[in-house]
TrEMBL record:
Keywords attached to this entry: Leucine-rich repeat, Repeat
Short name of any one Pfam family annotated for the protein: LRR_9
Name of the protein in its database record: Ubiquitin-like domain-containing protein
Coiled coil feature spans: none
InterPro entries linked to this entry: Leu-rich_rpt (IPR001611), Leu-rich_rpt_typical-subtyp (IPR003591), LRR_dom_sf (IPR032675), SDS22/Internalin_LRR (IPR050836), Ubiquitin-like_domsf (IPR029071), Ubl_TBCE (IPR044079)
Amino acid sequence: MLRILSLLASRHEMYVFSTSQKRVSVELVGTNKVRDKLKNFDELSCASVSFMGVSSTGSPEELQGLVPNLRQLDLTGNLISQWQDIFSLCQALPSLEVLDLTNNTMENDFVESPLLKNIRVLVLNNCGVTWELIEKLKVPFACLTDLHLIWNKLNIITSPVGKFVQGFDTLRLLNLEDNHIVSWDEMVKLSYLRSLEQLHLNKNKIKHVRYPSNLPSSGPLGDVAVPAFEKLQVLLLGSNEIEDFPSVDSLNLFPSLMDVRISDNPIADPAKGGAPRFVLVARLGNVKILNGSEVSARERREAEIRYIRLVMGKAESNDPEVLKQLHPRFAELKAFHGIEDEKPTSRMSGPQKMASGLISITLKCVGPSMGEKQPLTKKLPPATTVGKLKSLCESFFKLKDIKLRLFLEEEQGCPLPQLLEEETASLVELGIGTGATIIVDEES
């Protein structure tokens, strides 16, 4: 590796060939600065020797003399396998904090290890490591804050002592993406990682998520019990197989959870019968970032009101207990927003009674073949279906021989308008009320 680092500083003439095959010297802007920096290896803080066939770290003394202030080192895609080499490397570079060993096939055991307090971030993506090895690595790497373990087929968490993983007292981020994890019970074993703030589980095969409520009254070390996942703020579950609302609702029980990703799951895909964003926002009361997009105060308010209308329009039962089981936040949200059940009064009858139940929506034509048309505001019955509304739009805007698509214009801060696909769904069932804007477009 020393030889490769030295090559980084070598000066090569840069040139291109002209049409007559003559060399024409080329000088890149900023090249001199780079060369000057590479001359002074003692000032180098970051280095990458990825995919360069490195199989040994060489002499620790020479390495320390060459790059004494190196803080980040990328060894991706080399031929390193011995942990003793890695330990020697980390000891020789006391300033090293970030070490990336991605795509090196590491041995799954070692005999002795020093204490390496300098390493904060360790990347072991696609290194063929087992959780048994991870349990051993927490001894030398006792001060890790970030541990990345993508593509290692770590679908089972095994702890040598008790049911829960212990140690890793400083670990804030654990990345287990793309590891074929199926059971959430394996993740429960991480409940008592005392500093864990981020758990990345994208691209696994998890079907259900449940907050671990039936935990022992004392902690794993016999100390006073703390809530499970006490400090977890970020939980990334994108591209899994979650398809039930109880999994979504259980996320409200995590004490500190604010950032959630559940995109590319059946439950969050309206095209597969999943819920639109406004339903997920309403069901997740504490979340401030959903699927990478900030949930503004305005979006939350409007999403919760739409959700209340949706539940009221499609209530499977009037039994409060059944409603609470199916929609845990419904009663709370209804009270918070001051929405009462609609009750007909005996004084209203005929046209007056009918008009009082209409909702006012704005229709906007945007299709390129529709011509320039002014937006229209219409009062419609809440039971109007998407299919009926398409027919009405054809009449309102005098459209002929154009197949329409309708979109609900989302509130400010939402990424995209929501396509209204289900022809038989009514406005009230979709949570659409007075003040909503429907975009009328044509099929491409």
